[in-house]
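Two proteins, back to back. First:
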Amino acid sequence: MFKALCAFVSLYALIFSYQAHAGAKDDFIKAVKTQCGKSDADAAALATPGRAGNVIKLKTCSSATITVGDCTLQCKDASSSIGG
């Protein structure tokens, strides 16, 4: 029973962590399309993953803007709203 419960919890966590990352990427693509006028394909190409990727740069921005390629994105200053 314990193994089944652990398997269920692991699967549940995996599904929701994937959705959280997909949301950040979707938010990034939407921002690039609206603020820079890029196409879907161009915005998706700029959505680089990883700890140093562009998606994380927008999600955790520490200034009013971030520059991604030839595009400058406006973002909320995350340093003034830690935890929220």
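And the second protein:
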Amino acid sequence: MYTPDIILKKDGQPCISIPLSEVSFFNKNKQFDIITADVFQLGIGTLWAKQYYDIQNLGLPSKYHVQVGECLRFEYHFQENITYSIGFVTTVRGNDETKNWTKKTWDREFRIKKDTDGTVKLLLDLDAREDK
């Protein structure tokens, strides 16, 4: 499992991205195919899931790709004070998706917490599950 970066955007929604540590100075423009993405809530189940590949032809490249630091497109409106688990699977763009050598599974928990004074903050990992 790999851990994506998550920050809050100005609109209060999370920006979930592949960390800069995934590229070096010499390949900083490397792109990643997004194969699948999902949003899960404990006790509820899967809230949203999307497959970005052609199940009939796994040799075709993914229809969706990003670079490190670019916000991934999660077509879900995240609400405050709910703990979510997000996940996605990537390969390095241009590689055959049926091969596993560049496939990575990303997963992280987070909660957007709104305090009584209106302050909004992002809680990650264990902090997302605790009542802070």
